Amino acid sequence: VSGLGDRWFTGPAGIVDGLLFPGYSAEDANPDIGDSVIAETVGIGGFAMAAAPAIVQFVGGSAKDAVNFTLKMYEITAAENNIYKIPALDFRGTPTGIDIRKVVETGILPSINTGIAHKDPGVGQIGAGLVKPPMNCFEDALQAFVEDLETKNLV
């Protein structure tokens, strides 16, 4: 969280809702891991799904779902990234800068495009889908942010 230094706010990894490659089942899947979530913070990945309807189809959604996912992300972000523009949204910039206050206030969690890794090391990716981070990460971050402001007599 910007302004809180090197602090991390963690929670249990979510189970990815998506499609598996042939020959694999849900029992083979690991909970979400990896760096896909970082892409969301700059306005790519799940936040830009309206620009890539073919991707959302791969993860089990429709073109309408892709637009709706992106529109929902505008509700929890602080700005738009005008480097990444979305033709389907009249070239609006992608939603950028997840705002912990907006996430907690609205209850809307970020939508993350991610690969599904096999639970056994060395097997690799067995599918792709969508996952949401745990709400407690945002609640804990907001609490820490408020406490930090209080120690600086800013609230």
TrEMBL record:
InterPro entries: AllG-like
Protein's name according to its UniProt entry: DUF1116 domain-containing protein
